[in-house]
Design brief:
Keywords: Amino-acid biosynthesis, Hydrolase, Magnesium, Metal-binding, Methionine biosynthesis. Its cofactor is Mg(2+). Monomer. There is one protein chain. The chain is an alpha/beta fold. It has 2 domains: about 5-15 and about 100-225, Rossmann fold (3-Layer(aba) Sandwich); about 20-95. It is built from 8 helices and 6 strands. It has helices spanning about 15-40, 40-55, 60-75, 80-95, 105-115, 130-135, 165-175, 185-195; strands at about 5, 120-125, 150, 180-185, 200-205, 215-220. The structure holds ligand L4RZE5RM and magnesium ion (MG). Magnesium ion (MG) binds near residues 10, 184 and 185.
Length: about 250
């Protein structure tokens, strides 16, 4: 029977502050000239039209749509066309070395262990599939794509706080919901996954706000032990912690 791990990116595999301090400002900085160069390409033109529709400004000009996108970046809006455009910008920047990705040290170790134990590993992030692939391909630990089987974003996966998104991803990867473990730093995402029948693990990194909720908590992927038969009982997580704790603090 197939077993799958699904990982959030920002706050889970990778540092929130890196994304906010490096990726977002970079996209904001180059957006105007990038749209001037690439705005005629079909995928980009589509995303720009779709952003204008979402902003309720269907007839807006190029400069104004760039301002709207910049405002969304500033507010960390998880809006699909913005994520499409950011992903295309970051894809080139990561490939050229203008940007370097960030992946916590425990992540490649866990990817190696879990895949060797027969788990498939997938990504579900608000960042676009193009961004995800470039992020893990150009990681400071080398190319991590060989450990990753599937990539889901707001377009092919759906909203991250909706149980239906997790139901649809489970169908798409062909794995029973009870055999899927989801790791995230956002309680509302973990809640939605749990409603869909997935196993949930809150990832509380040193540099992230409290996750909140009542999901089992780990501070590194080293504490997620996926050996053995996991059907039925609680997930063996939190080993090595003084006590496997449940998330504390306000919801995010
Ligand atoms: C390499 S993905 C870029 C990060 C990003 O844009 C984002 O929105 C991450 O959101 P997540 O769902 O991974 O928390
Ligand atoms: Mg996250």
């Amino acid at each position: 029977m197939s077993r799958a791990v699904v990982l959030d990116v920002e706050g889970t595999t990778s540092s929130i502050s890196y994304v906010h301090d490096q990726l977002f400002p970079y996209a904001s900085r180059v957006l105007g000239s990038w749209v001037a160069t690439h705005g005629g390409e079909p995928a980009v033109a589509d995303a720009l039209r779709s952003a204008a529709r979402i902003a309720d400004r269907p007839d807006v000009g190029r400069d104004e749509i760039v301002d709207i996108l910049r405002d969304w970046i500033r507010r960390d809006a998880k809006v699909a066309p913005l994520k499409t455009i950011q992903g295309l910008i970051w894809q080139d920047a990561l490939a050229s070395g203008a940007l370097v990705s960030h992946v916590y040290d425990d992540v490649p170790r866990a990817l190696r262990a879990w895949t060797a134990q027969g788990w498939t590993v997938h990504i579900f992030s608000s960042g676009s599939v193009a961004a995800q692939r470039a992020w893990f391909r150009h990681s400071p630990h080398g190319d991590l794509l060989p450990y990753l089987t599937g990539f889901f974003d707001l377009e092919n996966g759906g909203a991250k706080r909706e149980p239906d998104s997790y139901r649809s991803i489970a169908r798409s990867i062909g794995t029973d919901p009870a055999s899927i473990v989801f790791l995230s730093d956002v309680a509302a995402e973990l809640d939605a996954a749990r409603v869909a029948g997935w196993r949930s693990v809150a990832v509380q990194r040193d540099d992230t706000p409290p996750v909140g909720g009542d999901h089992p908590v780990v501070t590194t992927f080293d504490q997620v032990d996926l050996r053995g038969d996991l059907t039925g009982g609680p997930l063996p997580v939190g080993h090595g912690l003084p006590a496997a704790r449940s998330a504390a603090g306000g919801p995010r």
